Structures are given as C-alpha cells and as structure tokens.
Inverse folding.
C-alpha cells in the first residue's frame, strides 16, 4: 500500500512469474516483550479439540515464551533457523498473558510449544516461583531437553502445575546419540525419567528410528529397554534429513551414515515416510516395518495398559485414552 516492493521486505518468500524468490533473513527481534499477546479473542477456543493425551484440562491453548535453541543436533533445523540464538520473553510478560487467558477466556491449561522450554535456568526458576507464590490455577506441559531436568526441579515444576514433559530422547543407544550430536547420555535419559515419575509428572518421549549407526538389532534392543522404562507416551518417528541440516550435508557431501531414497523430495519430509536408509538397514521398507513394530511392541503390552488405569480420573480421561487407543490400533494393528 505504501509503494514498497516485496523484494525489499526481509524474511519472506514468494513466486515471481513462477520463480521462487527469497528476500533474505530478517533481523531478529531482540526484545520479545514487544510482541503483543496472542489474539485469542478472535477465535472461539472451546471449538478446538486437541489431540488425545496432549492436555489434562480444557479449555487449553498453546503458548511460546522463547525462540531458538543453543544445541546443534545434526538432524534439527531449529539451530539453523534461529542461527544458534536463544531468546525469551520476560517472566512478567508471560505471567501477564497467562492471567489474561484465565480471566478473559477461562483457560485452564497451557501447552508451552517452545523448542527448548527452560533453556535459561534462572528464567525457569523465577517463572515457577511466580506461579507458586501467586497461586495461579493453571496446569501446563512443555518440551525440553533431558539435561534440564533433575529431581529437585521436577518436584518444583509439578507443584507449579506442570503435569507432562515432552522430551526429545531420540534413542537409547549411545552410538546413535553421539552420531547425531545429541549431547546427552542414556544414563541422563534414565535419570530424567526417574525424576519425572518420582515427581508425578507424565512423560512424552520422542524417538527417531533409522538414525545413523542404527541397525534392526539395535532398534529392537532399544525398544525392549524402553518398555522397561515405561514412559507414559512414546512417539516413534523416522530420521528425516532436511536440506540445510548438518546430517543432510554429511549424507550428501561426505557419504556418511547411509543414503537418501531415489525419489527424495519435499512432499516426503514428514518424519513418517522413509526418506533415508542408514547403512545398517536393507531398504526403506525395513525401516518402515521397524516403526510399526515399535508402536505395536510398546503400546500393546499388559504392563503399559495397566499403568494407564490409575491415571484415568475423569470421563474426559476415558475419552482421550480411548481416542488414542483407536488411532494406534487403526494404524498399526489393522
């Protein structure tokens, strides 16, 4: 409207006569408190039904308090997207938004969607202390790294309303963890699981099958070990090397770890379709079958099913567990 050309606006991409044009990176906003609160007054949040197992109370809304991640896992695009930086909103800003969501929209739960929640320990301690001191009635979940959590912190988070943590565990094989530069150990994973269980915090764990150095034998051994640890929910993805990530360059330029499939393209970069075959696997189908095996082996155990029963405390809990069971059964049993 002011005569400015799209090419002069940093941080966007568009097509010009069929040609894709990227205008270059936009400078990062240094003070995230300059951003207004999310405009939830424009939607009816009661009409949104979250995925099974993702929330404890309704209505629930997502929130982000930080940008970026300082770690450099080889498969992750976040360090490249945010150029290795990590920025957070102030605790005052976040607490103010939570209070507004409660008073104006009746929100009972927050899903913190940061790639690394609590990456700043001082910020996390102050945030938790404010929730407890001001007796803010909110339950919440978050995504964070294994190394952030210890028993003392987990107990404090639970007191402040945290009921579930999503961890990027990725593997229980140290060779695999080292190959993807995860910078965590199997022992740390086990300690974090113990801390959460001891504190009453439920655990959602992400694992990546078909990673560098993995073999079907290693994967089955890992799944067996995982069953003994028994997190509340486990997600099994397959390794998906995105263009621009370090693992993509290692595979395509250095010939490391394995090979991409012949028809590798952007439509297949879903973390569910196999686009990478590590040297330890015969073909893409073997990787895909391992993913199906992992879901069946983990979720259809008597120990797992029995462990869920004490955590069903309302009719909504019954509904969300049943929806989750149907999704898994339809995809991996039928």
């Amino acid at each position: 409207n002011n005569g400015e050309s799209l090419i002069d606006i940093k941080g966007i991409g568009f097509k010009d006569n069929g040609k894709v044009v990227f205008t270059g990176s936009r400078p990062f906003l240094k003070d995230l408190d300059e951003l207004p609160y999310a405009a939830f007054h424009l939607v009816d949040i009661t009409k949104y039904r979250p995925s099974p197992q993702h929330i404890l109370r309704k209505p629930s809304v997502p929130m982000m308090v930080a940008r970026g991640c300082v770690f450099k896992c080889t498969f992750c695009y976040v360090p490249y997207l945010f150029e290795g930086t990590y920025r957070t909103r102030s605790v005052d800003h976040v607490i103010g938004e939570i209070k507004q969501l409660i008073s104006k929209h009746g929100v009972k739960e927050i899903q913190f969607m940061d790639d690394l929640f609590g990456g700043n320990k001082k910020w996390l301690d102050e945030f938790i202390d404010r929730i407890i001191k001001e007796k803010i009635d909110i339950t919440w979940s978050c995504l964070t790294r294994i190394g952030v959590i210890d028993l003392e912190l987990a107990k404090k988070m639970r007191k402040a309303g945290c009921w579930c943590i999503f961890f990027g565990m990725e593997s229980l094989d140290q060779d695999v963890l080292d190959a993807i530069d995860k910078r965590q150990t199997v022992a740390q994973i086990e300690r974090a699981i113990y801390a959460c269980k001891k504190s009453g915090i439920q655990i959602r764990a992400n694992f990546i099958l078909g990673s560098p150095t993995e073999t079907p034998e290693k994967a089955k051994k890992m799944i067996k070990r995982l069953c003994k640890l028994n997190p509340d929910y486990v997600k099994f993805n397959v390794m998906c090397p995105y263009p621009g990530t370090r693992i993509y360059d290692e595979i395509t330029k250095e010939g490391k770890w394995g090979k991409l499939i012949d028809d590798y393209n952007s439509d297949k970069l879903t973390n569910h379709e196999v686009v990478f075959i590590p040297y330890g696997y015969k073909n893409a189908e073997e990787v895909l079958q391992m993913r199906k095996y992992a879901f069946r082996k983990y979720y259809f155990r008597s120990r797992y099913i029995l462990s869920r029963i004490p955590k069903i405390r309302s009719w909504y809990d019954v509904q969300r567990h049943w929806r989750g069971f149907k999704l898994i059964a339809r995809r991996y049993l039928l």
Summary: Residues 315-332 form the longest helix (18 residues). The CA atoms of residues 97 and 308 lie 33 Å apart. The chain is about 35% helix and 15% strand. The chain has a mean pLDDT of 91.
